Amino acid sequence: MMRRKNASRPARSEEALRLAQVTKVYGSAENAVTALDGVSLTLPAGSFTAVMGPSGSGKSTLLQCAAGLDRPDSGQVVVDGEEMTGGSEAALTKFRRRRIGFIFQQYNLLPTLTVAQNTVLPLKLAGRRIDKARAREILTQVGLG
Ligand SMILES: Nc1ncnc2c1ncn2[C@@H]1O[C@H](COP(=O)(O)OP(=O)(O)OP(=O)(O)O)[C@@H](O)[C@H]1O
Ligand SMILES: [Mg+2]
User: Relative to the CA of 57, which ligand 1 atom is closest?
Assistant: First the structure.
């Protein structure tokens, strides 16, 4: 289960993201590759961070663990005050839908939907009200109006 620090959660955590001793190993035995080896970091809310490093240094693995798309083998991932590690797959899915935006290098958009439909899909899946005018406004802001 996703744990909240306080039952009555503050509006926003001052930390957007915290990783504590996060480790991820692909494969096993002689094929084992340690992609993340005890990574700890804290990113304050409202900040912008670029992750840089050589090919194979673990950037994608880091982002996938930080966004709850993959699970670390050990360590803790806390997004906006909520711990993501240890929850069920369903709880993680709901958390991602509510709290995380992820733009993939290969986009992963649904080709049968329009740009607007792709944009509001997470809201639709979450059963939330869709403000079409607001969606259009945001798309216009990024040159996709
Ligand atoms: N699914 C996987 N199975 C086995 N090894 C993997 C897997 N994904 C990544 N790795 C290995 O883990 C290490 C880190 O890979 P990762 O993709 O996180 O690096 P990266 O920094 O994103 O690289 P790039 O700049 O090429 O995208 C690499 O040695 C890679 O070969
Ligand atoms: Mg990568």
Answer: 21
Tell me, in angstroms, the distance from the centre of ligand 1 to residue 91's CA: 26
Does 23 fall in a domain?
yes
**Domain encompassing residue 49:** 3-87
pLDDT tens-digit profile of 48-100?
999 999 999 999 999 999 999 999 999 999 999 999 887 888 988 888 888 89
Ranges assigned E (strand) in 3-54: 3-4, 15-26, 33-44
Q: Is residue 31 part of a domain?
A: yes
Q: What's the gap in Å between 107 CA and the centre of ligand 1?
A: 19
Q: What contacts 126, CB < 8 A, 6 or more positions away?
A: 94, 97, 98
Contact 95, 68 (CB under 8 A): yes
In short, whether 57's Cβ falls inside 6 Å of ligand 1 is yes
Q: Is residue 140 domain-resident?
A: no
Is residue 78 included in any domain, yes or no? yes
